[in-house]
UniProtKB/TrEMBL annotation:
GO biological process: regulation of DNA-templated transcription
PANTHER family the record matches: DNA-BINDING TRANSCRIPTIONAL ACTIVATOR DEVR_DOSR (PTHR44688:SF16)
Database matches in SUPFAM superfamilies: C-terminal effector domain of the bipartite response regulators, GAF domain-like
PROSITE patterns tied to this protein: HTH_LUXR_2
Domain called HTH luxR-type: residue spans: 212-277
Native source organism of the sequence: Corynebacterium aquilae DSM 44791
InterPro entries: GAF, GAF-like_dom_sf, HTH-type_RamA-like, Sig_transdc_resp-reg_C-effctor, Tscrpt_reg_LuxR_C, WH-like_DNA-bd_sf
Protein name: LuxR family transcriptional regulator
Recorded GO MF terms: DNA binding
Keywords annotated in UniProt: DNA-binding, Transcription, Transcription regulation
Length: 280
């Protein structure tokens, strides 16, 4: 793996782990990358208490991560030592660290598994659907980051025209753009001046212009406002307060958005909107 890819992708991974821990309150987040021989290695982490899992190499089909690799699907266990859906080759390392519940999600780019994203807790707490959705959403964001990084490297855009292209944003900087977009849409929603509102909505559109040309599904301004709220982590009640409408109306907009985008959860809807360029 070349140094450019390592640096770009490591920045994205570190940002994702930190943000995931902050968003969920889960104490441990980890990323295991795929080695040339097809095995996994945990090479990035936040919140580990011991070195037991640091740089651990995992065989396909073994443990939580290995099962994710073999099934290409998320895997969660609420009591690791007693879980019967996984094999137990790595019990010593997991128990030395003291992890009890673990959720792991594959990160797939172009049908190739690039790694596995983990969260874990040291106490007997069951990780609910919201945590699983957050981990899945973060994995999808990482997939997009990896894909963008790979595209830049393939085109060698920075080398061909470094003055024009500038430095590629890392994951934290891109997340700041996303946050600014969501907050700007909330400001626009509170404006009474129609002309000013239209101008600011055009600014919002410009933040996603590079990929918006790919958009085929049309979302209304109100639907985009709701999605922007969801992307900021707001609940339906909080979104309703921001937009000056009722929670049931927010739910109605969300149902419409999910139907249009073929999404099953609010977080899938945010990711689908990003893929078509409706959100940054």
């Amino acid at each position: 793996m070349d140094s450019g890819r390592l640096k770009d992708d490591e920045d994205a991974i570190r940002s994702a782990l930190t943000q995931l821990k902050s968003a969920t309150g889960i104490p441990v987040t980890m990323f295991a990358g795929v080695l040339p021989d097809g095995r996994l290695q945990i090479h990035s982490w936040v919140g580990l208490r011991t070195p037991a899992l640091q740089n651990l190499i995992i065989d396909t089909g073994c443990g939580v991560g290995g099962r994710v690799m073999s099934t290409r699907r998320p895997v969660g266990v609420s009591d690791y030592s007693r879980a019967n859906v996984i094999s137990h080759e790595y019990d010593d390392a997991v128990l030395d660290e003291g992890l009890f519940s673990i959720v792991a999600v594959p990160v797939i780019v172009g049908r190739e598994i690039r790694g596995v994203l983990y969260v874990g807790v040291h106490s007997p707490v069951r990780l609910g659907d919201k945590v699983i959705e957050e981990v899945t959403m973060t994995a999808r964001v990482l997939e997009q980051e990896f894909a963008v990084n790979a595209a830049f490297r393939r085109n060698d855009m920075g080398r061909l025209n470094p003055m024009k292209q500038g430095r590629m944003m890392n994951g934290a900087e891109w997340e700041q753009i996303r946050s600014a977009h969501g907050k700007l849409r909330m400001v626009v929603n509170r404006l009474d001046d129609g002309e000013l509102r239209q101008e600011l909505e055009e600014v919002c559109d410009q933040m996603v212009t590079p990929v918006r040309v790919k958009q085929t599904t049309k979302l209304s301004a109100r639907e985009l406002d709701v999605l922007a709220c969801v992307a900021l982590g707001h609940t339906n009640v909080e979104a309703a307060q921001e937009m000056g409408i009722g929670p049931e109306t927010v739910k109605s907009y969300l149902r419409s958005v999910m139907r249009k985008l073929g999404a099953h959860t609010r977080y899938e809807a945010v990711n689908a909107a990003r893929r078509i360029g409706a959100l940054p």
